[in-house]
Amino acid sequence: MSLRTPLAQVRGLGSARDGAHHWWMQRITALMLIPLFVWFVGTMVTMATGSYAEAVAFVRSPIAAGALLVLIAVIFYHAVLGLQVVIEDYISAEGTQIGAVVIMRFVMSLLAAISVVAVFNVAVGG
């Protein structure tokens, strides 16, 4: 037995069956960002008085480079999830909403890729 009206069933209105996953992923990424940000801020504070060569040497260590890559991935994924909710909540026209989400995802993917390439360039000495 469905609680939706026959018209709603024909139109396909109802749950997208995606909301709970989206909600959980946003919470999980937020929890992942807590220790990553503590590590990142602590590292930046301790390196504030260091030289450029020391910073490059730090990023060249596999653990630091890996942690930076994880931080970048989690930050951008979390941002995409949050921005998608904002777009879906505040843009009412469906076509404009879909276009805005596509553009936002493209821009965020581009920025994430640029960030990853930058870390790789420093990490491998390029």
Structural account:
The radius of gyration is 20 Å and the shape is elongated. Helix 2 packs across helix 4 and helix 4 runs antiparallel to helix 5. The protein has one domain: 3 helical TM bundles of succinate and fumarate reductases (Up-down Bundle). It has five helices and no strands. 83% of the residues lie in helices and 0% in strands. It is mostly helical and 126 residues long.
For this structure, the CATH topology is: 3 helical TM bundles of succinate and fumarate reductases
The CATH homologous superfamily is called: Fumarate reductase/succinate dehydrogenase, transmembrane subunit
Biggest pleated sheet: none
Annotated CATH architecture: Up-down Bundle
Number of extended strands: 0
Any idea what the radius of gyration is? 20 Å
Task: Please state the structural category.
Answer: mainly alpha
Indicate the low-confidence ranges by residue numbers: none
Give the strand content.
Answer: under 5%
Bulk shape: elongated
User: Would you tell me the overall average pLDDT?
Assistant: 90
Number of domains: 1
